[in-house]
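[job 4471] stage=fold_predict status=RUNNING
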Amino acid sequence: MNQNYLYVGSLITSVIGAALLLFGDFAGWYWWDQYVEVTVWIGIYLDFSPSNLLVTPILLVAVALLAFCAYVSYLGLMDNLEDSFSRFGIFAAIAAIGIQLGVFMIFALINIIEDNAWWPDVGFYGGVIGGALTLTFLYLSNQQKTSFK
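[job 4471] inference complete, writing structure tokens
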């Protein structure tokens, strides 16, 4: 049985997840006072705000992990994928999801304590959903490959 459709799915979802995480806003928050209103977005930016200086390197690791998952999917499409390398792709997808959820939980906790309005944005949703779908496709392709042996 051909499992190329699973590798195509994981390639598409990992590339889209990495692109949305790289080019979209990850999350945002809004603070207001009687005379001042502040709206801030965090994500992968080249500015020098304190929040983005902390978040950008961490999210770049998640982008790199999703790019690695895309490479593993490409190797699977070309039938050059070893079993151990396939497992590294699965672990990379798990790590990418964990990093994003960890960053968002810290972000949410800080803004709950500070009593700010906050929200997840397209980078968060795209990265987490893309990572979860990539994980699912890579896991199913690995299970399908081992069931035929």
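[job 4471] summary: The helical segments are 4-23, 50-77, 83-113, 122-147.
[job 4471] exit 0
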